[in-house]
What we know:
Blueprint: E1 7-8, H1 18-22, E2 28-31, E3 36-39, H2 49-53, E4 59-60, H3 66-71, E5 79-84, H4 88-98, E6 104-109, H5 117-125, E7 130-134, H6 146-163, E8 171-173
Amino acid sequence: AGREAAEVDSSKCAFCLTCFRICPHGAVSVDSEKNAASISVVSCQACGICVAECPAKAISLPGFTDEALAAGIEAGASMTVFACENSAVPAGKAAKMQGNGTKVNMVTVPCAGKVDPRLVLAALEKGAQKVLLLGCHPESCQYLSGSSRGAKRIKRLSEMLGKAGFDGSRVAFG
Length: 174
């Protein structure tokens, strides 16, 4: 991927091994000295799936931290699009050039599997009428399961928004 590997903050790691179970590249191992997960810089493909799935938020991806992605969310955009850099960014740029007057805020992510529901909610809080997560076709995902994981997260978020009395169709995966 040409990026730095994901990193585990062993002081935050709950040692639940969620990252170990979900890493599509087998890059996570157990560091028994630290009682924490460890990520191989050789095997890690820097997709960020483990970052979004870590319940303790103990994993970060240099260059694609949640804070950096949140900073890319523009207030007042009609639509915020979190676009996988491997498939959706080129398509998104072409669509943006077509232009239909809609103010679109595109946030590049390494993989659809990296997008945490909190980022989607942040975009809605900043005024986006619609938030799209665009990823690879599930059978063509460079990171094997990232697109499927992102789609499932968006579906759950849409359902939760609906149960809370909001329009769940404001968030979608494509």
